[in-house]
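We store amino acids, tokens; thus:
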Amino acid sequence: MSLQRLFQLLARSITYPLRTLSRNAPLIRSMVRRDIQGRYRGSVGGTAWTLLHPLLLMAAYYFVFGIVLRVRSGPDQDATGFLLYFICGMLPWLAFSEAVGRSPGIVLENTNFVKRVIFPLEILPVNLTLTSLVAEAFGLIIFLALLLLAGHGVAWTMFALPLVLIPQVLFTMGLCWFLSALGVFLRDTTQVIGLILTVWMFTTPIFYPASSIPPHLRWLFEKNPLYLIVEMYRNILLDGVMPAAIPLVVLWAMGLAMFWLGHNWFYKVKKSFADLL
């Protein structure tokens, strides 16, 4: 293979995921809206469950860790302070875990699309990622309201949240592409990823402060992208400080790498889906 041909393939692999998103933007918006409206169709709560589900989940975790176990992120922190600390960490986790947890079965749930040559299957994991952001958006509104009620105030650094949110979305989308393709080949992926997410949640400082991690293990925890994301959310929304430059660059590198690798893997193996379903 000539060097020119190699550069052409590399350029195409980098630009094609972005072209996929831009070319199918209207279809993505339509499917995300349909997924949100149809998920709870027929239930009494309807689309209100989009807000109620994460609220009830956060309330249950807060009751266990904040009320029963009385976990605190600092010696002088009261229950209200821990509530803000906890919800701030849960915001990115809820969006991430919902999308990743559903991704191994998304192609299997839409086998009717697999047979359609003209349907872009690669947008299915994209829809999952964007749909999960709706719950985070509602959670962010509630969090900001609690900040105001607690007299904490909203820091100007809140406007820097996209610096963390964008690589979070890129990382989530790339992982969803990878797992949705893997789920076609290995049907046990859904069960395995459920266990992995449980472990992942407890190895991310959501319910406890990062300072409680033993110093000799902290370097290992810092390799976790969700560790970086959660800590940066708290820097921006609670502490009113900008994230450190080096961890932010590392997070962007992780997000971009997962985004492109996940898409290339999905695009390469999707031709085999019709034979397996």
